[in-house]
Amino acid sequence: ETDLVLTDIRDGYRVLTLNRPDRLNAFNADLHAALIAALHAAEADTSCRVLILTGAGRGFCAGQDLADVAASPGEAPDLSGTLARHYNPLVRKLRALPMPVIAAVNGVAAGAGANIAFACDIVLAAKSAKFIQAFAKLGLVPDSGGSWFLPRLVGAARARGLALLAEPVAAEQAEAWGMIWRAVDDAALLAEAHRLAAHFATQPTAGLALIKQALDASESNSLDQQLDLECELQGQAGRTADYGEAVAAFFDKRPPRFIGR
Ligand code: T3D
């Protein structure tokens, strides 16, 4: 059987490729299990300081595999169970990983597939890629964090339009709306993702992980709480070897050599 998630180990980072191309990399339980295992393996590898998440074939991810639902007609599907067992732990893991995660959206990202991209730290998309909040068309609710990410990324008016109309948004529109970091030419997508990953792999990883934490917490903190959190996180950042190295390199007038801790 083919690997549902391909792992390509590079110098300082890993590329994880969702690999069910004939279904546009739609999620079934096996793909979920393979992806979460690949994320745990990446986290356990201390030499891995960045992840790229992309899709095999012409799609990034078409969300939930609807064939799974069609397979048991007449039976009420336990969607809460699927979210609780699979999608929610996946989104939580992506947010909590102590390293930058780059989504390289190579083609259509629909339903949970779109929202899993938004859970990543930097979203690059091929210009031919589209983002679709497909849920409304199925009578479902944006999940995998979609109802949380959308208003924060694009504002209330656009979030409502996207969620209720379920119309595709092209990559360049997504960039213009601030939904993603950048839309790039199709042929340049992977090269750009590798360039960014190679850059991050030389950066102060522990500090980057603290930045992720600070930005996530800011979504629900008051300014007062956030100032306290910045105090605490900056204390931790200041104790990393990389901060010492950055200051030493500054005065030596040389580029820093970060070890990620
Ligand atoms: O279950 C729960 O717990 C709830 C969780 C829900 C999370 C969700 O993600 S709900 C949203 C589910 N996803 C969708 O509704 C998207 C369905 N797919 C589409 O609308 C279209 O496929 C796309 C717009 C994504 C792409 O369109 P197009 O024309 O480029 O490709 P296609 O021909 O529709 O798809 C190619 C093949 O992939 C096709 O198979 P075939 O005919 O070649 O054998 C198609 O059936 C298959 N495919 C695409 N998406 C899915 C899928 N198969 C199963 N599940 C899919 N989601």
TrEMBL record:
GO terms for molecular function: isomerase activity. It holds the Pfam family ECH_1. One of its GO terms (biological process) is phenylacetate catabolic process. InterPro entries: ClpP/crotonase-like_dom_sf, Enoyl-CoA_hydra/iso, Enoyl-CoA_hydra_C, PaaB1. The lineage of its organism: Bacteria, Pseudomonadati, Pseudomonadota, Alphaproteobacteria, Hyphomicrobiales. Belongs to the enoyl-CoA hydratase/isomerase family. It is an enzyme of class 5 (isomerase). Its EC number is 5.3.3.18. The keyword Isomerase applies. The keyword Isomerase applies. Keywords: Isomerase. This is 2-(1,2-epoxy-1,2-dihydrophenyl)acetyl-CoA isomerase.
